[in-house]
Amino acid sequence: MTTFDERLNAELPRLRSLFGRIYGDLPEAGRALDGLVQDLRASWDARPAELKALDDEREADPDWFASNQMLGGVCYVDLYAGTLDGVRARIPYFRELGLTYLHLMPLFLAPAENSDGGYAVSSYRDIRPDLGTMADFTALAAELRRNGISLVVDFVFNHTSNEHVWARGALARDPLYDDFYLIFDDRTMPDRYELTTREIFPDDHPGSFVPLADGRWVWATFHSFQWDLNYRNPAVFRAMAGEMLFLANQGVNILRMDAVAFIWKQLGTTSENLPEAHLLLQAFNAVCRIAAPSLLFKSEAIVHPDDVVVYIRPDECQLSYNPLQMALIWNSLATREVNLLAQALEQRHNLPPHTAWVNYVRSHDDIGWTFADEDARQFGIDGYEHRRFLNAFYVNRFPGSFARGVPFQDNPRTGDCRISGTTASLAGLEAGDPGAVDRIVLAHSIILSTGGVPLIYLGDEVGQLNDYGYLDVPGHAEDSRWVGRPPYPAERYATRDDPETRAGELFARFRGLIDVRRRTPAFAGGQLTAFHTQNPHVLGYQRGEVLVLANFSEHAQTLDAERFGGLSADRTDLVTGRPMPLGAGLTLAPHEFVWLA
């Protein structure tokens, strides 16, 4: 057990050094840091005793999140349960499934119409009224904690909505907030910045800036109603640290750090993945180590694989989404070949100690093909053409496709787009393809066995399909990502115990895999060793003494006995309990996978 003063003495030199590297010798930086130290002490004094006890527990077990007991689920409060009280009512089901980590999608106050699915935050201290109150949120966090479930929320810290009190103050030229955003009197500086920045949502607005009613221009990387914060102003850092610690004291255990690549702007660069972005994250990390030491960060960086991994370190973001593995699972299902996925597991999977991937089959967002072109070239694959193929395949524009995805930001001229849809619809269940259930389970078997925190989009475990009703909802019709965010699939959950239904078959197989994972110590941690199957359709890797093999083809595949030379021949499949000796080789049925101990 460490005291506040011990943690402050240990971390303050690091925080002071980071401030110096970020802000130089700006007098206002020193004042902000002095004020921040006062904020940290006040926040710690206000931290509930139950959370302080959790701090002690997790400081004693820094790898708690890498346990094979960990299982994540993610959902929208309104779509999945109506309200925060509705989420509390679903805790018995979360325990039935085995969840230890629950990510609630954006639920803070946001503009009623334009909110980018809640990622335009108007207040970090108020819940959307239709979902409940902050008191409801705090009570839910406590109830989840009592049931062994860590609460995860999105922390949108690159930008706020244009309705946030800071933004309203900046618009009114309030001196307190005048420098909270990147606002310019004319186009001179925006034009210079836009020489090197890229358009993220060109359908919303060209470039990186949008005009204000008073003739000024504000930086808006994403949507016109999302104004980027100016972290060159140390007062912004202090203010955002206060919001972060407030949420930690309500019982949040993990913050999904949204859009980490964009938080620092530099003229003459892309203003993405700059060194100062890492310094800012490390400074926020130091803040939490002092006043909320059990709080973890999860980075959201959907960028080149080399840029994703540099955010993952114990003193920065301890957790990170694994977008490369996600994209390459879908690539392997479409191509029936595992070359890119096997390469990624061998070369890009293992992480530093005390960190972990969050592995997922799909998220609330679209699927983008984030593999590196240089990786693809090693197999003679042209990245541009291959992405065109994958886009066509997953929106059913390719002969023989089983997928029923919906294009997001489709550009027919270039063939570029990203893919929206639920797991079941993308894997063939909507199309009635006979291999659909096996594909769904196969994809989830990878995230459950490669190490880290497996994350299930809740409802996928019972095979929820695309929701085309989004086309009739104001504010959703122009954003096809909503097709993959269906409301709670009540009928499917009602039949989850009936093995004669698709939902029942899927749920039983999910539960079986989750139970096996929990019983298998080799699935703890994140280290993985490649196993070369020499079969283009069969993925292989080892987790300790467990050998994982997975057939991504709809045809049976055989591995010769010589493939297993040097391994013990007496094996049992943990999934089925069947003996599977390797002395005579091994044949895998279509879409079959085995966890051989």
Automatic annotation (TrEMBL):
Classification via SMART domains: Aamy
Domain of life where this protein originates: Bacteria
GO molecular function, one term: amylosucrase activity
Residue intervals of the Glycosyl hydrolase family 13 catalytic domain: 76-517
Record-linked Gene3D superfamilies: 1.10.1740.10, Glycosidases, Golgi alpha-mannosidase II, Oligo-1,6-glucosidase, Domain 2
Coiled-coil parts of chain: none
Transmembrane segments: none
Pfam (any one): Alpha-amylase
GO biological process: carbohydrate metabolic process
Listed name of the protein: Amylosucrase
